[in-house]
Amino acid sequence: SQKIEQNSEALNIQEGKTATLTCNYTNYSPAYLQWYRQDPGRGPVFLLLIRENEKEKRKERLKVTFDTTLKQSLFHITASQPADSATYLCAPDSSGGSYIPTFGRGTSLIVHP
Amino acid sequence: NAGVTQTPKFQVLKTGQSMTLQCAQDMNHNSMYWYRQDPGMGLRLIYYSASEGTTDKGEVPNGYNVSRLNKREFSLRLESAAPSQTSVYFCASSGDGTGDYGYTFGSGTRLTVV
């Protein structure tokens, strides 16, 4: 069955540095992959979508890459700020053609001032 | 404000009680979804509705029923609550089946079954 892996350990970085979060998937080939941000006690908020034929996508300080050979997506936040502290969820679409995303467990990012 | 509205925000039930979680969106989206989120498990799809009048099971549908009342509203019903259904429930909607613009989530319902 399909499996999505995100680092369960929190990522701690200093303000101003680039944060890089990893999402690995196995046993299928998603047509696209989404990234969401979730703050404590809130619902996830959509950030970016990247398709299988796109290598990279950018939005302001965010950059997402999608390597279908490695079955991996990297999510970068440049010039990180304490306000970027949150849990980031990776969501490739499901196998079977429904295109409904399956969510990873998320990685907590903590940006220290 | 445009978005997805869930009610109630918090609920405590006794084992065996029933309740309905309400969800409404005002973005004219075709598709709506119910997820549950448990510590260490991530978001899991319970049911979804690709369009008004249709519903389909997700990954964890047992113990739940849904109703797509109209294009705006999608409710989730627990007929006989069990402690294993203690969770945070999120409703979401999307306007494009391929997820081009992502999903819009509500703020969640925190349900405790004792």
Summed up, what is this model?
The complex is a heterodimer of chains A (113) and B (114). Chain A is mainly β.
List the defining traits of the structure above.
heterodimer; A: 113 residues; mainly beta; Immunoglobulin-like; 5-stranded antiparallel sheet; 5-stranded mixed sheet; B: 114 residues; 7-stranded mixed sheet; 4-stranded antiparallel sheet; 0% helix; globular
Structural notes for this entry:
The complex is a heterodimer of chains A (113) and B (114). The mean pLDDT of chain A is 92. In chain A, the strands form 2 sheets. Chain A has a 5-stranded antiparallel beta sheet with strand order 1-3-8-7-6, with no helix packed on it. Chain A starts with a strand and ends with a strand. Chain A contains no helices and 10 strands. Chain A has one domain (3-112): Immunoglobulins (Immunoglobulin-like, Sandwich), CATH 2.60.40.10. With 113 residues, chain A is an all-beta fold. Chain A is globular, with a radius of gyration of 14 Å. Chain B is built from no helices and 11 strands. In chain B, strands 2, 4, 5, 6, 9, 10 and 11 form a 7-stranded mixed beta sheet that branches. A 4-stranded antiparallel beta sheet of chain B has the order 1-3-8-7, with no helix packed on it. Chain B is mainly β and 114 residues long. The model of chain B has no long low-confidence stretch (mean pLDDT 93). In chain B, 0% of the residues lie in helices and 51% in strands. Chains A and B meet through strand 4 and strand 5 of A and strand 5 and strand 10 of B.
